[in-house]
Write a structure and sequence with these properties.
heterotrimer; A mainly alpha (about 325); B mainly alpha (about 290); C alpha/beta (about 260); A: about 325 residues; mainly alpha; two-stranded antiparallel sheet; globular; B: about 290 residues; about 5% strand; binds adenosine-5'-triphosphate; binds magnesium ion
Chain lengths: ~325, ~290, ~260
């Protein structure tokens, strides 16, 4: 196994014992939110980090997943386990349709059209009152108890239970992504990012692999959305909004795009920072703005790239001394 | 019914002129420089807030305030280009888009800290009483804004097509390398273009702040509409931006009036999506990618 | 040297009013090194683009092993065994030299998509194969020292060899090289000729070569096709081309002061 996989496993081990040592429900709640963002940011990273396209419509799949989960449980009365699947499927299908339509577009056009799709969906969610209850949103979702067999139900009520649920989902997501990016498919996606023409000349179909990464990302964003719906027991049009998009983008950038660990670190750190700076609402966001600028200009590889950057700087200093 | 349609159309044209005005700066920055500028709406917002302080708080004359906005925001745009955009010039869309997203977050929240959430109105010397033109109602401030929009568009057009600076701009955006070879300081042209785009956004913010409101949080919506207008009009074309703005304004107004006001804002996005599905390289862009 | 491997049949390409390639026909035989030469702007790179699907011909057909490949997408053409390099050096800049060559083997590494998530023995065996093959190519192209360096940090000569390594990694039957000797010094150009010979004779690859360095062209090619202003003006052995008057005129007309 590669270094990246080992670090992720170590993180998983640490996370798995956290609820045993932390009994503060509020802190556990923060960890659950962080787990949700781990899935979401990692899913965006597949597109922004690995294929190298700035999709600003990623909130669309989050929203589709959340609404799908809300609708199948409140309208059809399906079990929460199925609604998680429904969320992932809704996100994935959304990604397939939108990706197929937009991935032929170049640079600025791609950015703006993906954003347009998310906005259209947000407006539909606020206006199609019969289906979505409009701006009021859908509330009263049940906790995602998992029926493991006849009469055997894994109740997900406590914060700790929600934490383990999100941990399982995040592990699943990262495992699937790990296998993807370290496979021939993932190499093809990276090749498109690095040099589209050379990729084509060695037989890689850029459209297909960009779409594959896009659908995979959308699918996990949908899953994150479904989890969100059950955890907060409420879904409103804001799940399609730009503020989720901003949050996940900041996490991916700060942690380090194009690596699996980066978005995980970014999600946890930004969630916690966000919480502890909550007192200073605008100041916090002002700082985030500056942080994004600084990262893009000076640390394009994010936190994950920092050690290598420091090592390079040290080596240069060493050479200079000689 | 016909009167109503006429009124909606006129409303749409007025709103459309404002859309065009607020998108003009973006035609330069997105259309020519290919920077997906998410801070465009914030430049607009800054124009409005600064004009409000100058007129409302300091009590300066509206036109003097407008002149100050031009100077301040021109300098601001130059600095932004120099510090944030220039280092990323050779990179892809991703980097510049991200840096402007950061700038946008920074500016909105800085202005929320400074100016608070309350909406402000920029004071103008014009009466707000409605003017009746046959069956159509309109007011003087709006007419004035439309007139300023027309002047701004004409002025920029002349600048680009009749001056040496404009010639250098056209050369630069047609072929950067060739322009550099014939001795044009390409970096200065980029800086100037960005500053000009920023100024135009700010001026429209100041003007429209006298009709709507100036408020730190308006930027997001302005950016989105401006993206739509620039894409509809064809990247980098002034006439296109005007036409795009008018089309968007009228379509929204008619749709909102006759069909459904809830979905009014969908129209622009739907246009953009449909247009780019049919013409993936935009309305007026000729495909020319070299291997 | 036998049957035609690649055939161009009356291929043209216009850009607006300009005919960059006009009614060009020629055939590359299996097992040969065929050079495509001509003054700047003659249409050589455009011809490459037309063969490999980066551009569609305005008219005419391209056949590979008898099958019509006109207008196929680039990755489809590559998957048939026609792999090209680019005039402006093109590699996967952010990846290490090793990963560049691994990525080049995409076609060979393909497995059913579900294997991505359930790799099993097949995938690890395939992986091991690929690593071995990569080491072999590193060795062959003298890039061992650079194994773990990011491609964009490579000096020019290494970069050009890496580009060839990527193309070879793709396992082509027909290799198209666009000015591989550009920017190389005399010794490096000699090495290139040797490399082309080995690849051609020992590995059995057919090569279509675009090159301005006449030393390389004359030494390496079995036959030569000459383009000028988009049209084919001559075709023949190096000796015949060397003394062809139209060819001399074309070169003299375009580039004065050169022999
Ligand atoms: N995408 C394009 N759009 C417009 N014109 C093009 C395009 N590609 C090539 N051309 C023109 O077609 C002609 C042939 O160009 P091409 O690059 O094929 O020449 P070449 O033989 O490879 O020249 P060189 O030896 O300089 O590489 C030139 O006049 C060139 O300007
Ligand atoms: Mg060429």
């Amino acid at each position: 196994m590669r270094g990246e996989g080992r670090i992720l496993l170590a993180l998983l081990a640490v996370a798995a014992v956290l609820p045993l040592v932390i009994h503060d429900d509020y802190f556990l709640h923060l960890l659950v939110v962080a787990g949700f963002y781990v899935i979401l940011a990692s899913s965006l990273n597949l597109i922004v980090g690995y294929v190298g396209e700035l999709s600003l419509g990623h909130a669309a799949y989050l929203g589709l997943g959340a609404y799908a989960a809300a609708l199948v449980t409140t309208r059809l009365g399906l079990s929460p386990a199925l609604s998680l699947l429904a969320g992932a499927a809704a996100g994935g299908i959304g990604g397939l349709v939108i990706g197929a339509l937009t991935l032929r577009l170049k640079g600025p056009y791609f950015v703006i059209v993906t954003l347009s799709f998310a906005e259209v969906l947000r407006l539909v969610a606020s206006n199609w009152v019969e289906l979505t209850n409009g701006p009021m949103g859908i509330s009263g979702l049940k906790p995602p108890d998992l029926a493991l067999g006849r009469g055997l139900v894994l109740a997900v009520h406590s914060q700790a239970a929600f934490f383990y649920l999100v941990l399982v989902l995040a592990t699943l997501a990262l495992f699937v992504m790990y296998r993807f990016v370290h496979s021939n498919m993932g190499r093809a996606a990276i090749a498109i990012r690095e040099n589209r023409h050379v990729a084509q000349s060695v037989g890689i179909d850029p459209f297909f692999y960009a779409l594959a990464a896009f659908v995979l990302g959308a699918l996990f964003a949908g899953l994150a959305g479904a989890f969100y719906a059950h955890y907060f027991t409420y879904v409103g049009p804001e799940v399609f909004g730009f503020s989720f998009m901003m949050s996940m983008l900041i996490m991916v950038l700060v942690g380090g795009k194009g690596t699996l660990i980066g978005p995980v670190l970014g999600a946890v750190l930004v969630t916690l920072a966000d919480e502890y700076l909550r007192e200073a609402q605008q100041l916090r966001l002002t700082l985030f703005g500056l942080l994004v600028i600084a990262v893009v200009l000076f640390f394009p590889e994010g936190l994950v790239g920092l050690p290598a950057k420091l090592r390079r700087a040290a080596a240069m200093r060493g050479e200079a001394r000689q | 019914m016909l009167d109503l349609a006429l009124q909606f159309t006129v409303n749409g044209l007025v709103v459309g002129a404002f859309y065009a005005l607020s998108a003009l700066g973006l035609t330069l920055i997105l259309g020519l420089m290919e920077v997906v500028n998410f801070a465009h709406g914030e430049f607009y917002m800054m124009g409005g807030i600064i004009a409000y302080y100058l007129t409302g708080v300091l009590g300066l004359d509206f036109f003097a305030s407008l002149a100050i906005v031009v100077l301040v925001m021109g300098a601001f745009g130059w600095v932004v280009d120099r510090l944030l955009i220039r280092p990323l010039r050779s990179k892809d869309t991703l980097s510049t888009a991200l840096v402007t997203i950061g700038l946008s977050i920074f500016l909105v929240n800085t202005f929320l800290l400074l100016a608070g959430t309350a909406p402000h109105k920029v004071a103008t010397p014009f009466p707000t009483a409605p003017l009746l033109l046959g069956p159509v109602v309109i007011n003087e401030t709006r007419l004035f804004a439309v007139a300023v929009a027309a002047v701004a568009i004409l002025g920029t057009h002349l600048l680009i097509h009749r001056t040496r600076l404009g010639g250098a701009m056209r050369a630069t955006f047609q072929n950067k390398e060739a322009a550099a070879l014939v001795g044009i300081d390409v970096e200065r042209i980029y800086g100037f273009t960005f500053a000009l785009g920023t100024t135009m956004a700010a001026v429209s913010g100041a003007l429209l702040g006298s009709i709507y409101v100036a408020q730190p949080t308006v930027g997001g919506l302005v950016s989105l509409k401006a993206f739509v207008v620039v894409i509809l009009g064809g990247m980098g074309s002034f006439a296109g931006a005007v036409i795009g703005g008018l089309i968007l304004g009228v379509a929204e107004s008619l749709w909102g009036g006759f069909v459904s006001s809830g979905y009014q804002d969908v129209i622009g996005f739907a246009f953009v999506i449909l247009l780019l599905l049919v013409r993936p390289y935009g309305l007026f862009h000729i495909r020319s990618e070299r291997v | 040297m036998s049957a035609a491997l690649l055939e161009l049949d009356g291929v043209s390409r216009h850009f607006g009013g300009l005919a960059a390639v006009r009614e060009v026909s020629f055939a590359a035989r299996s097992g040969e090194i065929l050079s495509l030469i001509g003054p700047n702007g003659a249409g050589k790179t455009t011809t490459f683009n037309l063969i490999t699907g980066f551009l569609r011909p305005s008219s005419g057909r391209v056949r590979f092993r008898g099958a019509d490949i006109t207008g196929l997408k680039p990755h489809r053409v590559a998957s048939l065994g026609v792999v090209r390099t680019f005039q402006k050096t093109n590699v996967f800049g952010g990846l290490s030299v090793f990963d560049n060559i691994v990525t080049g083997q995409y076609l060979k590494a393909r497995l059913p998509y579900w294997r991505t998530w359930f790799p099993g023995r097949v995938a690890s065996a395939r992986d091991a194969d690929m690593r071995r093959n990569t080491e072999r190519l590193l060795d062959f192209l003298d890039l061992k020292r650079r194994r773990d360096d990011p491609a964009m940090s490579l000096p020019y000569g290494d970069l050009r060899r890496l580009e060839i390594a990527i193309a070879l990694a793709a396992g082509p039957e027909l290799l198209l090289l666009d000015e591989p000797a550009a920017g190389l010094n005399t010794a490096e150009a000699k090495d290139l000729v040797r490399l082309l010979r080995v690849v051609n004779r020992d590995w059995g690859l057919s090569i279509l070569l675009v090159e301005h360095n006449m030393g390389v062209v004359m030494e390496a090619s079995h036959r030569i096709v000459v383009l000028n202003f988009g049209e084919k003006i001559a075709e023949g052995t190096p000796d015949a081309i060397r003394s062809d008057e139209r060819v001399i005129a074309a070169y003299l007309g375009r580039r004065q002061g050169e022999p």
